[in-house]
Amino acid sequence: MKTDAKCEICGKPATRFLFAAFVCDDESCIEKARMERGGPGGHKKRDLSELLGDG
Ligand SMILES: [Zn+2]
User: What is the 3-state secondary structure (H, E, C) of the chain?
Assistant: First the structure.
């Protein structure tokens, strides 16, 4: 499959789609993409606190 997508971190041609972002093979790019999403389960944690409300 051919795609024009570029790595959202460094701008090189993307090879994969991870954490809702296009990234290349560079581990630092993958790590940054993960950080952008708040880390593993980060968004779920935020959703949970919204469910519980703030008092
Ligand atoms: Zn990259």
Answer: CCCCCECCCCCCECCEEECCEEECCCHHHHHHHHHHCCCCCHHHHHHHHHHHCCC
